[in-house]
Please model this.
Amino acid sequence: METETGRLRVAAIGDLHVKEDEGGAYKELFGEISRSADVLVLCGDLTDLGKPKEAELLADDLRACAIPIVGVLGNHDYECGNVEEVSAILKGAGVRLLEGQSVEIDGVGFVGVKGFSGGFGRRMLGAFGEPAIKQFVAEAMNEAMRLENAMRGVKSKRAVVVLHYAPIVETLEGEPLEIMPFLGSSRLAETIDRFKVSAVVHGHAHRGRYEGRTPGGQPVYNVARQIEKPTGKPYALIEV
Ligand SMILES: [Fe+2]
Ligand SMILES: [Fe+2]
Model:
């Protein structure tokens, strides 16, 4: 289903951080989103500690969602080492989890990876020195490469990039300066700017700000639940 203008209404939210004692917290919201959007995008940190019980509670709530759901996981979803089980539970509830893949919905390609830290621009962490640093940087580069491979596979003219970590610093404004390099990596933006996209959505930065642009001028939205958005709701509504 599309709007009269032929555009697709995308509702996007990240950082739900569903806890074990929070059953039903999002049922109403997902019902409301189903009435106001055509696709729901989830930007990671869907559970608080990556516990299967938390994923089951979210899965129950997601059954109230009547529109297609795509998403990526966040760092919190990895915390307990149960990422496979958490993924399976969410997939069972209809979430098309993107881990370096893309999916096409009504003519729009959704392409996603979690992303990783590493910092921004000229101050980005480089692969120099101890093996542990090189491993850390390699993880950031791997995520950017997975994104690039996935983006090459998108056939649609319109594409939405779904991330957990931030690709730019602009949507992190408001976060303490000291933690900015841990909140994302501009390797993601460099990759995105090799392609033309309609929108980039991310989460992870609960205290950042809603809107920014890649160095190539493509729109980026921080849709973490905690961020104030033009809708006045916990989710963003973007037409692509
Ligand atoms: Fe988060
Ligand atoms: Fe996060």
